[in-house]
Amino acid sequence: MNDALSRHPLRLPRGTWRARSRLSLGLLLFAAIGAAAPALARDDGGPAAEAGSAGSDAPADATLLRLDATGRVEVAPDLLVAHLMFEQSGRDAAAVQDAVNRRMASARKTADGAPGVTARLENYAVNRSGEKNDQWTAQQGIELQGKDGTAVLKLAGQLQAAGLALNGLSWTLSPPTRDAAEARATDNALHLLRDRAAAAARSLGLRVVSLREVQIGAGGGSPPYPRPLMRAMAMKSMPDVTADDQTVTAEVSATVLLRGDGSGR
C-alpha cells in the first residue's frame, strides 16, 4: 500500500492547500478575537467602570453617599498693589518709543531705591493712532507691590509727579497669607463634610463607617490684581483705598460609607 502511494502520490486540486491555510489562519484569528472580546468590552466601559469602582469592595448591605462641602475664611489683605503707566504719542515712531523708554527707565530707578516696595515693568505696546492713522502711540506700565501701604502710596505719588498715570490700586493677599488661609479653609471644609455625613447617617438610621475618595481643592478668593480705575489718570493726590477682608474658600468631596447600627465592620 505504501509502495503504491509512493509510486502514485495523492494529488489535491490546485489551491486546496492554500485554501486550507487561509481557513486555519481565519480560525486562529477568530479564536484570538473571541479571547480578547471580554477585555475589550471592559475597556469600552472605562468611565462607567471607574464610577462604580468606589463601591466595588463595599459590603453588600452598605449605603454609599456622595457629599461635598465648602470652607470659608475671612482674611485681612496684607499686600498693596499699584499699577502706573506712561504713554506718549507723536508722528515719529522712534521718538515716541525713546520718550517712553527714558521715562520708564527713570521710574524703575526711582522704584528700586524705595525701601519695602518691589517693582516690575509690565507690557510694552506701540500702535498707530490718530484720526488719520498718522501718529504713533507707545505705552508701558510699572507694577508696585509692598506690605507697607504708606511706602507704596508714597512711591506711586513720586512716579505720578514724574509724569506717570495711576491705572489701578488695591489690597490683596500675599502668597504666604493666601496659602495659610487656604489651609484653614480646607480644615473647615473637612469638618463640615464630617458633620454633614453624621447628620445624613442619623436621618437615615445608619452610621458612618468611613470616608472614601476624599478630594480637596482650593475654591479661590478675591483676585490678586488691582481693580483698574475708569481710565489712567494723573492726580494731585492719591485715592483712598481700604483694606477690606477677603474671602478664601476651599472645596472638598468624598464618598461616605454608611451601614446599619447592627452591622459589623
Automatic annotation (TrEMBL):
Q: Name one Pfam family in it.
A: SIMPL
**InterPro entries this protein is in?**
26kDa_periplasmic_antigen, SIMPL/DUF541
Q: Which UniProt keywords apply?
A: Signal
> What is the residue range of the signal peptide feature?
1-41
- For this entry, the protein name equals SIMPL domain-containing protein
